[in-house]
Amino acid sequence: MTKPYNTGKNDAGKNRLGLVLGGFAGALEAVGLVGAYGATVYSDNSWKSVGNGVGRYTNALLRHQLSKMMVVELLDNLYEDCAL
Fold first, then answer.
1. H-only helix segments in 1-84
2. Can you give the pLDDT at residue 5?
3. Does 67 map to a domain?
4. Residue 84: pLDDT band with limits 50, 70, 90
5. Is 31 in the same domain as 58?
6. Is residue 1 in some structural domain?
7. Residues 6+ apart with CB under 8 A from 38
8. Count of domains observed in the chain
9. Which of 1, 4, 60, 82 minimizes the number of CB atoms within 10 Å of its CB?
10. Residue 56 in contact with residue 50, Cβ under 8 Å?
11. Half-sphere exposure of 9 (CA within 13 A, CB side)
12. What is the pLDDT of residues 29-73, one digit of tens each?
């Protein structure tokens, strides 16, 4: 008697890159475009050699977030004024 051939594939716990490449293709393309633009303004991978990079990039991120929050707050206030 022969053993039945197992036609199932056990993928449990394996990396599911199809979810990323298929589901986030647009986001990955956008990241690539940002990287390409940055390389034209600066140079390839120059962000890796910035002195005190973690601190400087953290501060830049926080500045941008604060700026966006201020714009949202301004728009909220304008909307409230117009709604009255």
1. 17-23, 25-41, 53-83
2. 66
3. yes
4. low
5. no
6. no
7. 46, 47
8. 2
9. 1
10. yes
11. 2
12. 999 999 999 999 999 999 899 999 999 999 999 999 999 999 988
